[in-house]
Structure formats: structure tokens, C-alpha cells
Amino acid sequence: MIKVTDFVDSLGPGLFRLVAAGRDAQVHDVVLAVPDEAAGRPGEIVLGAGVTTAPEALALLGRADAADASGVVLKAPLAPEVVAAARRLRPALIELQPETSWTHVIWLVRAAIDHAHAPPGESGDDLFALADAAAEIADAPVTLEDARSRVLAYSGLQDSTDPARVSTIVGRRVPPQVIAHLRACGVFRRLARTSDPVLVPAGPDGMLPRLVIPVRAGGEWLGSIWIVAKTPIPPDRVQRLTDLASVVALHLLRLRAETGVARRASADQLRAALRDGTTAPVPARPPWRVVALGGDTGDLRRRLDLWEAITHRFGWHRPLLTDLDDTLYAVLTVPDGPGRDAGSMPWLEHALSRVRSHDPALYAAAGGLARTPADLPRSRSEAAELAALAASGRLSPGLLLLDDVWDAVTVERARKTTGTSLLSGPLPDLKAHDEKHGTAFLPTLAAWLDHYGDTKGTAQALDVHPNTLRHRLKRMAEVTPLELSSSQIRLALRLQLDALLNAD
How far apart are CA 451 and CA 458, in angstroms? Predict the structure, then answer.
């Protein structure tokens, strides 16, 4: 199941606006409101088709609240008293764009909910049929693209094609040189602002002219229909293509809703599995690793957008991503043999090596192997420990495996247990001297213990001359006795120093 807020977000501003979240309940079904009858049940969204006045809206909200429904959908504009009442009640109030047909809403919402609870499958076959329909109208090849220039479908008609179309279909994305030409012509600015068809002149590398029909819903630009226009397309056919764009808009909304709702339902299930390990998270074979994904942005939403873009760019189209305790996690498989299938650890290593050339702060911190769902919380906890070390700078970014840096985790656990309260030994005196005189005795002792007996290595770590180091060690010995012959004392000192120098 998914929550009301995620449900509305999945369907997008072209259709819905969340006015009042209510108790942000789970959603598993949609029903039409029937006058003077109970309005929904727990988990249901109630569609207020036929509700046109404020008293009717208030009555429906009251019945939905009494029935413990998850939310109510009403068409805009909403009266102030309706909004005020909704903010006092438990069901969410969702505003529907005024020009939207209730029939289309029922179709979209039902498809999105059904898709969220269905096994993963292929989507978008209807878009290929629409591309063929557009090609038949225009008597020319057609591609359907989203607002990011990604190819969603294309027609079977291949007459009058050009290299740009072939490259677009093969790569599932408009080639960079073609995008540069389109930007130079102001095509994307016009598509984002208008519903009128746009004629694109011929471009580089034999690119033929294009007629572009924007696809919009509720003022939101969803994508476009691209027609290879080797010869001018008659006005009556352009009008038919414009009419077809409204049908394409519904399909794009449905596709986005299905994808968004299913993704959020999957994220909720995965989150539960990482928290308590009672549910198998993925239809993928174990063993798995739970990986904490991070970078230089502290905003969770931006991190999720970034890593979703990375996973899609490198072919993982159904990424197993979720957030828990303000950390973004992925669950990846660990194959026995060679190969780097999407969603596997070898795939992650390849993808991360590519993207870190542009963003070196990115890291992926992988916990230990999880051979059963019950192991997932432990792997997640280990990934979180590694991520904290990477975020604090105590581990370098990149791909971090628990197997490779277990020692750092062990020391960190000991540091947290040790704390900053000093029992005895030389550290209280050295710490007091540093605070009073501005000396650096504590970091000097830490470096000396790290390179014990190696004057040159210690001096290099501190970026001082060896003679300076010798003088500093002599002064430290004058402040307090330094008995370092015992390995146990050295270990205890180093743990306390780590706690002091890396206090949260």
C-alpha cells in the first residue's frame, strides 16, 4: 500500500493537488460517492463526481470522515469553508483540475492502484499503438517522447526516416547534437509554454524537418509527439494530431501514475524489510547487500532524485531504493560468477566509477552479505555505519565494502563506547594544556601512536619538521609522564584520542 501524500505526488500536479493531508492514511481502492450513503471505507479514496456546491462537499466530507475513508477528491475551485472543514477532519482533501473528466480520473486512478499491487510487468504498449495512429494520420514516422527527451514509443512506419530518428530509437534518447540544434532553435522553450504545434527546421547530419505536437495536461508539459515532416502536413491532419495529443496525455499520466505508485509501494515494502527483516523485499535471488547511497547533498529528496537518475541511466529501470532514518538505501544482488547485471554489486561498481568522474563526493557504502530476509536489518545497520564514516570524512568516498574497511567500523564502535570522559592517564593533562596554551599535543600524540617509532612518518602526517616533532614530544613529556611501552596502553590512548578528536 501507499500513503495519500505519495499517491497524489505520483499522479502529479497535472491532475491532483493535495489541499489537506488529513491523517495521511494508506490507499488501496477508489470508489464513487453515492448521495446519502456511507462514503467509502478505510483505505478508500472517494471521488465526489456530481458534487457541485459547498454544502454537498461538506456533507460528503462528513460522511467520509464517519466512514474512516482515506480521502475525498473534489473538483476545483473549492470553497473556503470546505477547505477549512477538511483541515479539521481525518480524510485527506484532494483537489481535481476543473477541466478533467471524472471518467478519465477513474481510469487513471484505478490503473495506478491496480498496477501498484500487481506483479512487475511491461508498460507502455498502448503508447506504441498511439504512435502508429499518429503515423497513420500524418503519413510519416512518429516518436513519442517525454519532457526529458526520452523515447517512450515509436511508430512502425519507417518511410522518410533520417539518421536522427534511427539514433533516437536505438539509444532511447534524442542524441546530444540534435538536442543542441533544438535548443538553438528555441524548441524546448516553446514546447514548455505553448500547446500550439511547433515546426522544427532541418538540422545537422541530414536531420529532416519535424512537426512537434506538445502533450499537456492541466497546464503541465508531459511530453510531445514528433513527426518527420519531409513535406508539409495539411492543416486538417495537424488538427487531428493535436486532438490525439489529449489522448496521449491521458496515457502519459497513467504511465506516470502507475510507475510512481508502484515505486512508492515497493519502497514501503522494502523499508519494512530493512527495518524488521520479516518480508522478502525483491523478486531477486539472494545473497544481497544493503547499500547506503550518499553524496554532498544533505537533502534526502535531492539524493533520491540523483540516484534514481543514475540507476536509470545505467539500465536499472526498477531500482530497489527506499529511505529509512534519513538515509537512502538500495538492495543489490551479489552474483556468483562474472557479469554486471543491472542491480548487482558489479553493476554498482561500474556505474559509480563512471559518475564519480563528475561528482567525486558520491559514495555507496555496502553492508555485509544478507543471505536471507532476516539478515537485511543487520546489513542495513552496517551500511549506515559505513555511510556515517564516509559523511564525516573518516573514510574516503567511492564504493565502500564492509569486508574492506571492517577495521574502521570496529574502531568506530569502540570509540562510541569509550566516549569523551577521561578516566586517568596522560590525556587529561595534555588536553588541559592544549586548551590553555593553544598547543596541539593531542593530535601529535595520535599521529605518534599511528606511526609509532617512525619519526619521519609522524612528522609528515603532522606536516612539521622532524626536529619540531622531537621538541614537541619532549615538551609533552615535561607536562605529563608518557609511558607508551605497553601495547594495551597505546590501544587505550588511541581509542580515547579518537573519541576526543572526532567528538560528534
Answer: 6
* Residue 166 CB neighbours (<10 A): 12
| DSSP bridge partners of 489 | none
For the chain, give every domain's residue range: 2-116, 125-253, 280-417, 419-501
> Which of helix, strand or coil describes residue 151?
strand
CA-based R_g, the chain, Å: 30
CA dist 495 and 188 (Å) reads: 58
Q: Cα(216)–Cα(210) distance, rounded to whole angstroms? A: 19
Burial tier of 504 (Cβ tally within 10 Å: 0-12, 13-18, 19+): exposed
CATH class of this structure's domain 2-116: alpha beta
The CATH architecture one would assign to domain 280-417 is 2-Layer Sandwich (3.30)
Residues in a beta bridge with 400: 365
Q: Is the peptide bond before 77 cis (omega within 30 degrees of 0)?
A: yes
| Residue 353 identity (one-letter amino acid) | S
Note the helical H segments in 185-332.
187-193, 235-276, 300-313
Tens digit of pLDDT for each residue in 391-436?
988 899 999 999 999 988 888 888 788 777 776 789 999 999 999 9
Report d(CA 492, CA 426) in Å as an integer: 11
Residues 6+ apart with CB under 8 A from 278: 272, 373, 374
Summarised one tens digit per residue, pLDDT across range 207-258 is 889 999 999 887 788 899 999 988 899 999 999 999 899 888 888 887 777 6
